[in-house]
Specification:
Radius of gyration: 12 Å
Largest sheet: none
Shape: globular
Number of helices: 5
Order of helices and strands: HHHHH
Helix content: 40-55%
Structural class: mainly alpha
Strand content: under 5%
Length: 71
């Protein structure tokens, strides 16, 4: 899950919000599935967590089957 990816990096929700420059409740809404990050924020979040966009999407239960990997 997104929460697990964040915790593996030793980050709090507050730290994620601060580093991505989003409002204080944003990370929480992503983690509980209330909202999904914009593409721009998804790229920033993947970089911060050290994962690919596909891994990030899967952690948020977004279906990426059939989406090709980058070449």
């Amino acid at each position: 899950t997104l929460r697990e990816l964040r915790k593996r990096r030793g980050l709090t929700q507050s730290e994620v919000n601060s580093r991505l420059r989003v409002s204080r409740s944003t990370c929480s809404t992503w983690e509980v599935g209330e909202r999904e990050p914009s593409l721009t924020n998804a790229v920033k979040l993947a970089r911060l967590l050290g994962v690919s966009l596909k891994t990030l999407a899967r952690s948020m239960q977004i279906d990426v089957d059939g989406v090709p990997d980058d070449e």
